[in-house]
Amino acid sequence: MLNTNLNINLNRSKREKNDEFYTQYSDIENEITAYVEYNPNVFRGKTVYCNCDDPFESNFFRYFVLNFNKFGLKQLITTSYKPSPVANAQRQLFGDDKTLAKVKDRPKITANKFIVNEVKNINENGKVNLKDIVKQLKANKHNEWSPLDGNGDFRSLECTELLKQSDVVVTNPPFSLFREYVKQLFDYDKDFLIMGNMNAITYKRIFPLIKNNKMWIGQSIISGDIEFQIPDYYPLTATGWRIDYEGRKFVRVTSVRWFTNLDHHRRHEVLSLLTMAENRRFNKKVRNSPVCYKRYDNYDAIEVSFVDAIPSDYSGIMGVPVSFLDKYNPEQFEIVGLSRHDNQNMDGGCWKGGQKDATLNGKQVYRRILIKHKKNHG
Question: What are the DSSP calls for 63-83, one per residue?
């Protein structure tokens, strides 16, 4: 788990748009593979926009450009922030092929725009690689590489115009701007696959989207955490850090999830459940819990302290941990509301006594998702 200092630094770097926490290629691949397996044409004929990604460093750009033909992309667009911390560092994209000379005229501090329209195997060796892409970008015949007029902020006019041209947005946006970022995606009716903190589901702008099945949790990160690569100069001040055999630094960050409106298999998996009586008999966590299945003091619902303790035979409203969203099947369950939230998201009005938080035995309950079984399930 990150300590307080690293959490503060992560939020600061995201707020300052330095893009210092790099998503690993394997994490991107693991997630996107799930959507391609569910729908092989999910990206076919589409324009993918990565609007928070320096292509010199971004594994999002790297992944999509190497799978451009396999996925049948129409176009790949990436835009980076200014200043770019790696625009002149020859890392990742240009650093993978040591035979390539440095490009003297490359913009050093400007925000960049890359538009890939075509990916060909230039050296005719039967395999598209980054060397092919670099040559095409340098030749600038079928693909565009140019500086942006502004700072590359996703809210800027020129980046918004690029967003309008896109079909699917895939990136790791600034966590501190998550509300604004998601609002823009819905304002322009875009498909998306983005990363964010799990706590974002409690935001007033975000929870109604989750509740109404307009946005959901992705496939690959379930009740866990994820490693991000950090720059060489970044101090290692947290538990969960490591340095690999190449000397690269990594930190492990908790409560990160993919958020999307693209469908995947796990979203339709039925959660296997026991009855309340069976849980009380066989589920050790339920037997040892003093509050599981107790009714809240101020709302007509029961406390279900563990996702694997959701009873199959209870027809009323249940309060379950936020991690339930990792296994949420909209055909099996209905999301009713959220405890410790504003009253407008509670179907049935506010808690008794005008309170906004659920209480149990007079004590405030940790944040819960309020759910009930769909009529055709349970």
Answer: HHHHTHHHHT-SEEEEE--SS
